[in-house]
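hi support,

uploading two proteins for the ticket. first:
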Amino acid sequence: MYKKIILIVFVGLVVFSAIYALTGKKKVTTNSDKAYQLYLAGEELTRKLYYSDAIPKFEKAIKIDTNFAMAYAMLANMYYMFDEKDNAMKLIDKAVLLFPKITEKEQLIINNIKGVIYNDMEFTEKNREKMIQKYPKSLEGYQFKASDYQMKHDFVNAIKEYEQLLKNYPDYALAYNMLGYLNYYQRNFDKAITNIKKYSIMAGKQANPHDSYGEILMYLGRYDEAIKEFEKANKIKPDLYFVLNHLGDVYREIGRFRDAIGYYERARDMATNKLQVIEADIEIAFTFWRENKNDKALNILDEALDFKIGCVSSIILKGNALMLQGIIWAQNKEFEKAIANLDSIESLMANDELRKDEGKLNSIQIYRTLLSGTIALNKKDYNKAIDDFQFLIDNSQLPSVLWFRQLLGNAYNLSGNFEKAKECYMANLADNSNHPLSLFQLAQVYKNLGDIENQKQMLLKFLSVTSGADESFVDVIDARKQLDSLVQLQIEES
């Protein structure tokens, strides 16, 4: 399934990191030492991604000092992340009114947050450019430059900015976190692990370093190690929404669907807003679909889609749910329903607020193309399916590209082009040597090519990776049957 990259979290970290730079130099404007200490405590919690715990700190800070602009801005950012946009706008407007009382650097930081809350990307970019020009050697200057490069998918220069940042700010642990992800996107897997390990050592008593380490390990197919890191994160700070989601992801990947659903349900229970509830429901539906329980998946999606579109993030979730529902209908040969969902996704793309944000507009485009390709595949229009899936590969990055390559390989396999299908799966295994779907489907390709020995090897590795899978996992059942048949054939031949 197409998983959103951590760009939203990344942008959030950039904002919090810039504010951290201000506080570290004691340049936040407030008349109260007590309010300042509360602010620092809240800021520390945001850098750990403990957002729910941070909110009361900022609320208390502005009660003590009603002219504390940066505290209003941070609280506004928290409310925005929790889908309380109206409250966020009121708070950020209050912060802006206090501009005559604060420094220019604080003003630039606040305007950056304002641009995000008001979904005015042009305004945000102008303020970020001002920050970079005015303070090029500051921590926040490096952060914003790296962020700009990442959003343009220029990971090479983003890496250079973080490496330069660390030369000047060697104790800044979060830079190692971002270098870990950026090197992963560049397929510098050893460097990715080295940087994430460094982050987990420097900030080991926080949950996020272990969660990040687990995420990279999961993407590389080191599933048992990933589970251990996610469990460490969950022990340090129990029931963080994103950690619970990652535990669901890794268990689903290896066919442990009951465990996956349990973690997604727990994440749902710990959700801080309606959008997180819907997101968790979509993950549960996707898990039921992977388990071949389409009726359960459709029931959940029917409920998940019963919400009104508000902010841009809600449009993304609506598109995601429509895509998955459409995929199931296409596979059930209910093409009219699937095409209706395709039309609905295209209607979402016309939303004025969405069109202001190129990154989120691209997400909807991905959902539309993925559903379009799946409809074509199930109609046996393989050329159209191949074109759509290739488009997704060309316009995506790791780890999403693994899913899209698997779909492309399936389209080639069904069309009879077994060598091209093999290329797709081999490319996936180069990025994740234990990718279960690729192992299983490559075995089918080898079967079609009459390569019994390699078919057997892929099946054995697939069953090894999914050794703890639910007994009802249809791919595991099929793999065992195939392996038994191959063994019996070898016995008969001998």
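and the second one:
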Amino acid sequence: MNKALKEMLVGVILGDAHIKKTGLNKAFISFEQSIKKLDYLNHLLTITKNEGLSLMNDKLREYTRTDLRNSSISQSGYFRTHSIEQLKPIADLFLDYSGKKVIPLNIAEHLTPRSLAFWIMDDGQHVKNGGLTLCTTPP
């Protein structure tokens, strides 16, 4: 995996992307964003395709769901990689022994301007008085 792809994956996994291990040596990543951010999600899809990661489908899929907590309806787009060995090191970095997403203690070693940019695009929030908030609470 080249450096640029790893940096992108670190940023999006710190954001809204999900990673899951399958078997002993493989993992897959699911990319999902609000329908409002389809241009960004298409950008991620293009990068992922160009880097040669095997995809379940080479087009975005869209769906609608109801959030039962507040009865709101949301629309999202998503795509997913196949379960591949190439993603296992990233899964080892971000998943604990039970498979729960965590922020690694050594995250500073993996943050670069590119990974921060993807994290901001993926899950950053603009603060009205200036600045931004990076969301860090894993699901």
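thanks. also noticed: The first strand starts at residue 18 and ends at 22.
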